[in-house]
Structure formats: structure tokens, C-alpha cells
Amino acid sequence: MCSSDLIDLASTVNGGHTLAVDTAGTTTFGGVVGGTTALTSVTTDAPGTTDINTTTITTTGDQTYNDPVVLGAGTTLTSSGLVDFKQIVDGGYALKVAGDAEFDGVVGYLGTALSSLEVTGTTAVDTEVIATTGTQTYDGAVTLAAPTTAMNGSLVTFKDALDGDSQLTVTGDAKFEGAVGSTTPLSNLEITGTTDIDTTAITTNGEQTYDDAVTLDSDTDLTGSTVDFKKTVDGEHALTVTGGAEFDGEVGQGTALASIDVTDDTEIFTDKVSTSGTQDYQGDTELNAATIGLAGSTVTFGSIVIHPAALTITGNAVFDGEVGVGTSNALTSLDVTGTTAIDTDAITTSDTQEYGGKVTLGHSTTLTGSSVKFDGAVDPATPYDLTIDGDATFDGAVTGVDDLLVTGMTSLGASITTSGTQEYDGAITLTGDSTLTGTTPTFGSTIDGGYNLTTDFSGTTTFANAIGSITPLASLVVEGSGTTDINAATIKTTGDQTYNDAVTLSSDATLTSTSTGNIDFVSTVDGAHNLTVDTAGTTTFGGAVGGTTALTGVTTDAGGTTDISGGSVKTTGDQTYNDAVVLGADTTLMSTGSGDIDLASTVDGAFTLAVDTGGTTTFGGAVGG
Q: I need a surface site. Which of 110, 119, 307, 576 has the fewest CB within 10 A?
């Protein structure tokens, strides 16, 4: 052999022996090699090139191509050992290695891309590029040894394990059927085309980037510093991201994922993420789309949720970190259709919040928004404070809260029970019958609405503003465990008013029932102000009136009756009873300031009546008739 001569094996080569070709020229295999009797091995030297213009080369041992290889035909290299390409491989044909393969030089990149590549055994890739115009299929385990590896093809399929501390880029579609990085994690992974994940794990030390649609055909755990899904993710399987995650395309809109679990921070740039089961975002969650819908059985946020977005959770929700707190971080709105567990101190939106199901508190919390609506019950297992910084709507019963504060207006359609105080700074509108129970209430504005209101507080119930002036209440009942302070000019109902506890007047007050409701003072009434009662029903004074602090005056209207059963009515000024008076006990009517006492209608009752005033006492109707 001469150092640069051509060695042309134009026809078949057979025989159970080793073939070594040593030339700086071109070695050509023109016929089938080992077709009848497999060679033991084939070795070409480093200089020159090897042209494979045959369909088959078969050996029982290794095939080692130390020089560049050019394919002149679609070929299958079969070896029970290793097929090792030490330098480049080119040629626009299909290459199949039936056995193990090693690529130490670029494939299909410097010259002509192969049409396709298939390796049935293991593959060692110690080169920067493998390029095909068609598919690449690796049936056995693949090991990457170069710092960066690019596999360019229409579809690159890894049927078995893939390992190696290499930055792998697949330019084209990819399918993973074996674990990736389980022995030696990849440094980074990027797929420019679609990705089919049919393996339990893909592990990288750095980022994973999926530029096109991802389909899950298996429950999988993607482990990396950040896993970025640039487009859609679908597949009825569980997705775990051990690390950070970024979702730029819709998730689960073709086929809902079984579940999502992200162990670190998550950025959501898409409008829809759907799972048939749970979604768990353990790190910080950044919402980077104008509207975002998360649909799942339960969506859990283990840390903060920030950035302006209208967030809708179709399913149950758990908030373990602050939501919308910080400069420019408030959510636009929040809507949860299922139950909500709030185990954080603050949820902030610039617009509305709506909770469709039961709400539980695991922490004293402030909900800040233009309005906060509870469609279901609020029922913490342990008493915590609840502050609504904005308007509030309660359509479900509230129980188990410690202190309740609403800074805006309140729409009240259910009962509220607290172990502590209740404070309503804005106007209250009743949209249903309601009972308010607690220690001390503060009503900072008006109360209206055509429904029944019952208050039951152990402290002082203060009405500081008009009640029923716009829309009269159906009825008002104040239970007897505390005291009532009326500092409102008007209390108006269509039906009854019942004050079971002691009443103190802190301003002149007119109590009105617009139909025939009864107005009943079961206990005492005190306070240096005028009391006017206007009803066609029965006005009952069941306790002493003015016994501690004389009223300024008392007036009842012409309709109905007045039942005086408390023993005394004391004023500094006038007392005018325009309706019929019935005594239910021995009674003394007294004006300490010489006011007139006018009994304009009848007076009845088998009891003693004493009138004590320096003014005029008038009996305008029959007495004892």
C-alpha cells in the first residue's frame, strides 16, 4: 500500500478475520462487507477518507473508522462490538448502526447532512453536532461527552437513558422514552421543536427550555434550575418541576394534566393552566398575563403571589403566602370558585375578590380590594381576626372569627358570629335576614334593607347613624346580653323593633314602624334626649324610663297603643301620648322640669297612675273607660 493511494473494495468482502486499511487516500467499500461471513473487525487509519457505498458492513467485533466517513448509499453497520467514528461523518443517506456506536467527530454538519440516523445499541456522543435532514433514533442508552451537543433533525428519539454533563440542543422535534440525566445530569437542555415526554425524569443542572409544544405521555419529574415551557403543555399525566418553572403557553387546554407541582419559583405568562387534579406552586409565583385562569381540584400557593393580573381559580385554593403585597404587586382581581384556605396575613387586589365556597383562616388576615365577596361560609377552625379593607359582601354565614373589621360598605345577607368585636365603617345594606353576634359592634354609617336584623352582643351596641332611612328594615331585634346606645336620629322598620337590653339615648331619636309593628323596650331607657315612637302597633315600655338619667321628652304617635309596664317614665320636659295608654303596672309619669304631660287618648289598666309635674297634665280621652 502507498501512503496516499486509493484502496477500492469494489465488490463484496467476506471472511472471519480482521480487516485493516491503511492509506492516506480514499478507502472505498463498494460492495457488501461480511454479508456471507462476517468479518471479525474493520479498521481504517486516520489519514484519508472512507467512502461507504454499500448497504451493509457486518462484523462480529469492532468497526473503527479513524478517518472521515462519507456515505454514498444508505447503509447498515452491524457489529457485536463497537462502531466508532473517530472523525466526521457526512453524506445525504441513511445510516443505521446495528449495535453500539461512538461519534467522536461532527456528523452531517461540515459537509452534507445525513438523511437519517439510527443506533440500536448504546451511543457515545463526543462531538458537537449530529445533523440529519430526517429522524434520529437512539434505541439504547446515550452518553454525551462534549461540553455542548447539538442534534439537528426532524425528530430525535431517545428510547433509553440519556446522560452526560453536556448542554444539549435538539433542533427539531424530540421524544424522550428513557430517563434523562438520572446517572449524570445534563448541564442544560433545549428543544426547538415539539417534545414528547414519555419518561419519569429529565434532570439538568441548569435550565431546560422547550420552545414548542410539550406532550406528557408519562408522569414525569423535570429537575433543573429553571424549566421554561415556551408554548403549550398537554397530557393526562402528573408534571413535577423540581426547580423553578416558567409557563409561556397554555397548559392542559388540549388534554388537562393530572397535576402540577413546582418546588421553586413559578412565572406564569399564559392565560390558562388546567389540571384534573392539584396544582402546587411551592415557591414565589409571578403572574405576568393580564388574565390568568388556573383550573384544578386544589391550587396551592406555598409562598407569595405577585403582579397585576385578574386571577381566577376554578376549584379550591390554598394561600400560604402573601398575595399582591408590595409596590405595584397587587393583583387586579381574584376569583375562587371552590373553597379557600387563607393561611397568610394579606391578600391585596386593586379590584374585586370573590370567594365562591367556604373560606377558612389559618392566620389573622387583611383582604384588601375594591370589594370582597363571600358567596359561602367563613369558618376558621381557630379564631383569627379578619379585616376587609374595602367593601364587603357576606352571602354565607361567618362563624369562628375573632375580630371583624370592614372599612368600606357592607352587603349583609347572612349571620355573622365573632368571639370578639365587629366594626363596620361604611353603610350596611341587608340582602337577607341576619344575626350579628359578638362582644361589641361599631356601626360607622347607616343600615338599610328590607330584611330582619338581630344583634346579640355582650357589650354595648351603638347605633350612631340612621337605620332604615332609605329602605326600612323588616324588623330589628337587639338581644338582652349587653346594652344599646341609640345615637341615631332615625330607626325605621316596616315591622317590629325589640330592645331586650337597657337602652341609652345619646341623641334625639325617632323610632318608626311604617306598618303596625310593635316597638318594645323590654328593659330600661335612659338619656337626656327626646324619644319619639311612631307606630300603629303597640309601644311597650317594659322597664323604667329615665330612672337613671331622665329623658328630655317622650312622644308617641296617634295610632296604636302604648303599654307602660316599667313603673315610671321620667323626663325633664314634656311627655305626649297621642295613642291609647294601657298600664301594665303601677305607674308614675314625672317631668322634673315642669313639662306638660299629655295623655291625649284613653288610659286603661287596673293599676295606680301618678302624674308629677309642675306643668299641665292633660287627660284628653276617657280614663279607665
A: 110
Contacts of 32 (CB under 8 A, 6+ apart): 12, 13, 54, 55, 56, 57
pTM: 0.93
* Closest to 58 measured CA to CA, from 84, 36, 88: 36
Over the stretch 249-266, which tens digit does the pLDDT of each residue have? 999 999 999 999 999 999
Radius of gyration of the chain (CA): 43
Coil/strand/helix, residue 5: coil
pLDDT digits (tens, 9 = 90+) for 468-512: 999 999 999 999 789 999 999 999 999 999 999 999 999 999 999
Residue 445's φ and ψ, nearest 5 degrees, are: -150, -160
Percent of the residues in the chain that have a pLDDT greater than 90, as a whole number: 97
Virtual torsion, Cα 184, 187, 192, 195, nearest 10 deg: 30
Which three three-digit cell numbers place residue 386? 379578619
Q: How many angstroms separate the Cα of 481 from the Cα of each of 433, 455, 456, 501, 541?
A: 20, 10, 7, 7, 18
Give 381: exposed, middle or buried? Use CB within 10 Å, 0-12, 13-18, 19+.
Answer: exposed
605: left (phi over 0), alpha (psi -120 to 50) or beta: left
Angle in degrees, CA 570, 605, 551, rounded to 5: 10
Q: What is the pLDDT of residues 129-179, one digit of tens each?
A: 999 999 999 999 999 999 999 999 999 999 999 999 999 999 999 999 999
Helices (H), 395-474: none
What is the distance between the alpha carbons of residues 54 and 535, in angstroms, rounded to a whole number? 112
* Local structure of residue 131 (DSSP, 8 states): E
Given a contact cutoff of 8 angstroms between Cβ atoms, the answer to whether 527 and 544 are in contact is no
* Dist CA 592 CA 568 (whole Å): 13
Alpha-carbon distance of 69 to 483, in angstroms, equals 100
pLDDT confidence of residue 1:
42
Cα–Cα–Cα angle for 610, 502, 479, rounded to 5 degrees: 130
Edge-to-edge, what's the strand order for the sheet holding 89-90? 7-9, 26-29, 49-52, 69-71, 89-90
Task: Compute the distance between CA of residue 156 and CA of residue 175 in angstroms, rounded to an integer.
Answer: 6
Q: In what order do the strands lie in the sheet with 587-591?
A: 568-571, 587-591, 609-613
